[in-house]
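Hello,

Our lab assistant flagged a job as stuck in the queue for most of the afternoon. It eventually completed. Since we weren't sure the result was trustworthy after the delay, we are filing this so someone can double-check. Below is the sequence as submitted and the structure that was eventually returned. Let us know if re-running is recommended.
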Amino acid sequence: MRPLHEKLQEARLAKGMTIAAVARAMPEVGPAIVGHWFRGKRKPQLDNLRRLAQILEVSMAALVADDPDFAHTAEEKLSLHLMRDMSPEMRQAMLAMMKAHVGT
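-- returned structure --
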């Protein structure tokens, strides 16, 4: 399992935010503390982790566990949602098409 700070960094970069921007979105926490979270020097408390997940638009589970629901972009989130609503046959067909496309 990857460390929390790596997942935070990945989610922050996917959102296109700087550490300073995240810190500005969390005025109740000092910017140095926010920086420590992203560098792995400290871990956020549960309420701060919840706020980080909201700001970065990821689930808390994605940050604390290797969760397959972790999506970087709105398009990935939509894709997960659409795939879950498909019949098993349609899902298999879509996966086969995607794998064939990646193989080219």
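-- support follow-up --
The delay was a queue issue, not a problem with the job. The result is valid. Residues 2 and 66 are 8 Å apart (CA to CA). The mean pLDDT is 87.
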